[in-house]
Write a structure and sequence with these properties.
The complex is a heterodimer. By secondary structure, chain A is an alpha+beta fold. Chain A has helices at 3-7, 42-48, 52-61, 64-81, 83-86, 187-223, 225-239, 243-253, 260-273, 276-291, 294-301, 306-343, 354-358, 364-369, 377-397; strands at residues 16-18, 26-28, 107-110, 113-119, 122-127, 132-137, 143-144, 146-156, 160-168. Chain A folds into three domains: 1-36, no CATH class; 67-79 and 192-397, Orthogonal Bundle (MetI-like fold); 104-175, no CATH class. In chain A, a hairpin with a 4-residue loop joins strand 5 and strand 6 (132-137). Chain B has a domain at 98-288: Orthogonal Bundle (MetI-like fold), CATH 1.10.3720.10. Helix content of chain B is 77%, strand content 1%. Chain B is built from 15 helices and two strands. Chain B is globular, with a radius of gyration of 24 Å. Classes of the chains: A alpha+beta, B mainly alpha. At the A-B interface, helix 7, helix 8, helix 12, helix 14 and helix 15 of A face helix 1, helix 6, helix 7, helix 12 and helix 13 of B.
């Protein structure tokens, strides 16, 4: 989209006359006003005087997929604030009678009668040939689901004792919408809880890597000379390592005596430590390019201090690009954490991330017998896709005049 | 031209030295003396400790010497092909994993070829048919390829390969060939088994490659020389073949630098899931048992592979691109 198509002054109908006999040929009858081109209409003013962020927002809005992705991400991040309320069971609630239960479905109609969402209780039987637990539904009586109810007690944010849930299992029945794992824990509840760790690790990691990238890229780009040389070489060397094996080695080095929370921060730090190189390169090249722009020279000639030039003219010029680039590198971190935890050298229980959940689905038996244990991969895919589309939209929007 | 080649090879040396220093630092990171923690671990597992073996290890790694000397001993050993000593097998690493390193190189090379073979035509199609349904569909597939963690893909494909094609689960060759000398039948068996890892490892890289190829070609297609060629009346196929494609080809080769690390990363984790006889499972085992010297050697080997890969790609680019060949400039 070009700037002109948005800022074009609207023509009012009263001034226009269609010339008879010549279709599509329109002539204005209003007296000629020589100042009309210089004056800005309200719409033009709105457009030409809009801030850069406003322009970005307008352009971003036009990228439908990116907007939808942004909303999905927003919802997912919002869910991490109230995970406890959203799920029917707690993170560690174990149902020893229902180990490896297959996903239960929610029904609406019982014997031709509509009674709202309900479940049938599960009945366990043991297959004496394969020694597999098998679960069937006992369809004699429906058990309606309860909503806005009190269920498993929990400590909200570790502060307030609560037992309020959006949805609870009916008395005398269970609701395992995505099945249970080897300890009889509800997979769906665990996936929702896992979002907390998996999603924040990306944000926290990118915050660290953003700071590092800004610092090193800024030094390299602003001072140039030998510091630029050293940083460039360092980036090249870090990039010539295969990422995952290096992550593996570093996280294996984390002392086993560390608490799970400390390990979480350690892993985040490791992910960020290898990720900043891309951002630093972007900062450096942008800084070098923008420094030579005319508006920078103009500011310098007008006597602006370097601090003002950097803060007022350079930084806004490439901040939008950087944010877009950072958004695009979050998925790599989330995938990295997932891979490390999957291999068993990342996060450890009781910290629960999607990778830790997938750790249960490590061998081919799971694919064959308990495929629902692989479901935590679905939110991973959704988040990665959403971040990619969202970042693409941001990147396009970061350049509003193109 | 010769000067460029020599320069380029000499440039590798400081890089490799820096990498080896980083790897050695990682080896030294775990707190305490490496050997002591190893003995403690052995005792915790209820295994007896052979003092003779401990003395041998202390002497082998020069653990009683200062750090700098330890580093020189370790790095010097690697120069003559001594990759360390495996405690689990009680053998020098090279004897245990000689085949593994070769198979890692084999699988990685296959994967690069696969990536190219798939990404090249699809990238061209996407760029020349921009915003068509085919372009959208392929882009979506590409995004999915980036988003699906490859270890999950490996598991699922392994299952279906077994159900549909009856390929034996795991490994890079039929069980009857393991530990046997190289024969024609063994090679065939490896080819039969290697398509799953190659596809699984290649998917992520291919998706990224297609997107970059598309973007690059789109940039080229907008340039004035293309307009000129078209204005002269060249048929579209010839315009594409004669100019923009050649530029895109350069990018294919120069991009090995970023493709190779991601392929090797993918290869390591996929190898663990598929239990391939490559370096992946052994690296993980070494890391889990804190056998840092062994893990460090693997890390060094992988980094070395990448550095050499980038060197090869730079030299190939030189042969291909007259701008680099004639001016002796640095690639990229």
């Amino acid at each position: 989209m070009s700037a002109a198509s948005v800022g074009r002054a609207p023509m009012t109908g009263s001034q226009l006359v269609e010339v008879a006999g010549e279709p599509g040929h329109i002539v204005s009858t209003a007296p000629f006003d020589p100042g009309s081109a210089a004056r800005l209409t309200a719409e033009q003013e709105h457009f030409y005087l809009a801030s850069q962020w406003m322009l970005m927002w307008w352009k971003f809005k036009r990228h439908r997929v990116a907007v939808v992705s942004g909303i999905i991400l927003l919802l997912m991040y919002a869910s991490t604030l109230v995970s406890e309320v959203l799920v029917p069971y707690n993170l560690h609630t174990r149902h020893t009678d229902f180990i490896y239960a297959s996903p239960q479905s929610v029904h609406w109609v019982h014997k031709g009668e509509l009674i709202g969402p309900f479940v049938y209780p599960l009945v366990k039987s043991l297959d004496m040939v394969t020694l597999r637990r098998e679960y069937t539904e006992n369809t004699t009586q429906p058990y309606p689901l309860r909503f806005f109810c009190s269920g498993d007690p929990y400590e909200f944010w570790g502060l307030v004792d609560m037992s309020f849930h959006l949805m609870c299992p009916p008395e005398g029945a269970t609701v395992f919408l995505l099945g249970t794992d080897r300890l009889g824990r509800d997979v769906m509840s665990r996936i929702v809880y896992g979002a907390r760790i998996s999603l924040t690790i990306g944000l926290l990691g990118i915050a660290i890597s953003f700071a590092l990238g800004l610092l090193f890229g800024g030094i390299a780009g602003y001072f140039g000379g030998w510091s630029d040389m050293v940083i460039q070489r360092a980036i090249e060397i870090i990039r010539s390592f295969p990422e995952l094996p290096l992550w593996m080695a570093l996280s294996a080095v984390l002392p086993v005596t560390w608490s799970p929370l400390l390990v979480y921060f350690g892993i985040t730090g490791i992910l960020a430590m290898l990720d900043w190189t891309g951002l630093a390169r972007a900062v450096r090249s942008k800084l070098l390019a923008l420094r030579e722009e005319d508006y920078c020279t103009a500011a310098r000639l007008m006597g602006a201090s370097p601090k003002r030039i950097i803060g007022r003219h350079l930084l806004p010029g490439f901040m939008s690009h950087l944010i877009a680039a950072a958004t695009l590198s979050i998925p790599g971190m989330i995938l990295g954490e997932t891979a490390l935890s999957f291999l068993g050298i990342g996060l450890r229980p009781p910290i629960t991330s999607w990778g830790v959940l997938l750790n249960e689905a490590q061998n081919i038996n799971v694919v064959a017998l308990y495929p629902w244990l692989m479901l935590p991969v679905v939110p991973v895919i959704v988040v990665i896709l959403a971040f990619n589309f969202f970042g693409d939209g941001l990147r396009d929007a970061a350049d509003p005049y193109r | 031209m010769l000067r460029y080649v020599v320069n380029r090879v000499l440039l590798m040396i400081p890089t490799l030295i820096a990498i080896s220093v980083i790897v050695f630092t990682i080896i030294q990171l775990p707190p305490g003396n490496y050997l002591e923690s190893y003995i403690a671990e052995l005792q915790a597992q209820g295994e007896s400790v052979d003092p003779q073996k401990i003395a041998f290890l202390r002497q082998y790694y020069g653990l009683d010497k200062p750090l700098v000397e330890q580093y020189l001993r370790w790095a010097g050993g690697m120069l003559v092909g001594d990759f360390g000593y495996s405690f689990e097998y009680n053998l020098p690493v090279t004897q245990v994993v000689g085949d593994r390193m070769m198979l890692t190189i084999l699988v990685s090379s296959f994967t690069i070829l696969f990536t190219w073979a798939v990404a090249f035509p699809i990238g061209i199609y996407s760029a020349t048919h921009q915003y068509s349904w085919g372009d959208y569909g392929l882009s979506l597939l590409g995004f999915l390829g980036i988003a699906i963690p490859n270890f999950m893909l490996a598991l699922v494909m392994l299952y279906f390969a077994n159900v549909i094609f009856g390929t034996s689960i795991g490994g890079l060759m039929g069980p009857e060939f393991i530990g046997k000398p190289w024969t024609w039948a063994k090679i065939v068996s490896i080819l039969e088994h290697s398509w799953i890892p190659v596809v699984v490892i290649g998917v992520g890289g291919t998706a990224g490659m297609i997107r970059k190829m598309r973007a690059n070609l789109l940039d080229e297609l907008q340039k004035q020389y293309v307009v000129t060629a078209r204005a002269k009346g060249l048929p579209p196929g010839k315009v594409l073949r004669k100019y923009p494609l050649r530029m895109a080809l350069n990018f294919f080769i120069s991009d090995i630098g970023s493709l190779l690390p991601s392929i090797i990363s993918g290869a390591e984790i996929t190898a663990v899931v598929l239990s391939l006889p490559t370096t992946g499972p052994m690296l993980l085992a070494a890391l889990k048992s804190q056998d840092m010297y062994l893990a460090g050697s693997f890390l060094m080997f992988l980094a070395f592979m990448i550095v050499v890969g980038v060197l090869v790609s730079d030299l190939a680019l030189m042969a291909l691109d007259p701008r680099i060949r004639l001016q002796g400039g640095v690639a990229r």
